[in-house]
Design goal:
This protein is α/β, with parallel strands linked by helices. Helices cover 43% and strands 18% of the residues. The strands form 3 sheets. The chain has a 6-stranded mixed beta sheet with strand order 1-2-10-7-8-9, with helices on both faces. It has a 4-stranded parallel beta sheet with strand order 5-4-3-6, sandwiched between helices. A 3-stranded antiparallel beta sheet has the order 11-13-12.
């Protein structure tokens, strides 16, 4: 198991390599909420900490042969950059569906990228094959003591920056980040709570802890690609079981809402994995009465999907509403409906109506509207106004 001494050694080694990232209060998200902005780290994520700590400890023979790693993107960039800094060849196996920005950045940092059909676990299998065949050193993204110790330096910074912190919330994929953070935090301040957050579609560590054994969960889609891991590591499972107080999950809509909130309230860009901690805070999955640090682990969001994520976040928080209803199929009916909606203060973004629809009868047509709203209370006001005016709300 990683010790606090190893984490202090890693911090010393990372001086001048990794940034000490800011920790700031986020009152618009919550009075007790603080953000540890690892999205502002070099390469846009915390991974350089563990990657460099691993790479610096390679023997001359290992360095001469090169390294191979598997990653959905952030570990890839960390290994690629540190390998280039140290003059070591790096080969990175990435899922073929990894965000394009992460793939291109990894190449730009000097790595040879191998795109593998499937998900992270398939990339891991290919990296293991190359390790066996070529003799590369395998730089595991989370199940490695040097990597875990490097990630643990985040907890040292948090305790320096906010000594009276009561709760630290950390994303969990394979578990390297939370293992290092939990070991350091619990060793130095045993009373601090450490909470892990996973995407509800792939809750591998949560299920493993609940079952008392490492468990592989079925694959599921998530916008939190950085924590899309189906099987925890042996070292990380042990650390989480021993040091972490609880593992919670957040939905895709909740993650999208957190990304939107960080953009608006903190003026900062977070990827899905990094925003999970804020989602857990916003949607009361944790005790928000405690002084809480949410580790925003990365900001490498794919801009081609960002607009869809924002739209999803707006919908989740009651800022965009899709309404399906019926009106009489005669002149003036549509304008009457629009008048009712406009009187609530909603802004109509788009409207369409169909005469021939499975939901409509001979004398009616179905209207579909997308409107801009203020919040969930405003949405309820619109529904009440429409029902009072005789309009039914259809299922989407």
């Amino acid at each position: 198991m990683v010790t606090i001494d190893k984490i202090y050694e890693a911090r010393k080694a990372l001086e001048g390599v990794a940034r000490v990232t800011p920790l700031t209060q986020a009152p618009k998200i919550g009075e007790t909420c603080y953000i540890k902005a690892e999205n502002l780290q070099l390469t846009g994520a915390f991974k350089i900490r563990g990657a460099y700590n691993k790479m610096r400890q390679l023997t001359k023979e290992e360095a001469a042969k090169g390294v191979v790693a598997c990653s959905a993107g952030n570990h890839a960039q960390g290994i690629a950059l540190t390998a280039t800094m140290l003059g070591i060849k790096s080969v990175i196996c990435m899922p073929a569906g990894a965000p394009l920005a992460k793939v291109e950045n990894t190449k730009n940092y000097g790595a040879e990228v191998v795109l593998v059909p499937g998900i992270y676990d398939d990339a891991a299998a290919e990296a293991q094959r190359l390790h066996d065949e070529k003799g590369y050193t395998f730089a595991h993204p989370f199940n490695d003591e040097a990597v875990i110790a490097g990630q643990g330096t985040i907890a040292l910074e948090i305790l320096d920056q906010l000594p009276d912190v009561e709760q630290i919330v950390v994303p969990i994929g394979g578990g390297g980040l939370i293992s290092g953070v939990a070991i350091a935090a619990k060793t130095l301040k045993p009373e601090v709570k450490v909470i892990g957050v996973q995407a509800a579609t792939v809750p591998s560590m949560k299920v493993s802890v609940e079952k008392g054994a490492i468990t592989t969960v079925p694959d599921g889609a998530t916008i939190a690609d950085g924590i899309h891991v189906l099987t925890p590591g042996t070292l990380t499972y042990e650390a989480v079981s021993k040091y972490v107080d609880e593992v919670v999950t957040v939905s895709e809509d909740e993650i999208a809402a957190a990304i939107l909130s960080l953009l608006e309230a903190q003026k900062t860009v977070a990827e899905g994995a990094g925003a999970t901690t804020v989602a857990a805070y916003m949607f009361k999955k944790i005790d928000t009465k405690l002084k809480t640090v949410c580790v925003v682990s990365g900001g490498n969001v794919d801009v081609t999907t960002l607009s869809r994520i924002i739209t999803r976040g707006l919908t989740k928080t009651g800022r965009i509403l899709e309404i399906n209803t019926k009106i009489e199929d005669k002149p003036g009916s549509l304008i009457k409906l629009l008048q009712v909606v406009s009187e609530t203060g909603a802004n109509v973004l788009s409207v369409s109506h169909e005469r021939e629809d499975k939901d409509s009868d001979v004398s009616a047509c179905v209207v579909r509207m997308v409107v801009e709203t203020r919040n969930a209370d405003h949405v309820n006001d619109i529904y009440k106004k429409m029902k009072k005016s005789g309009y039914s709300i259809l299922e989407k």
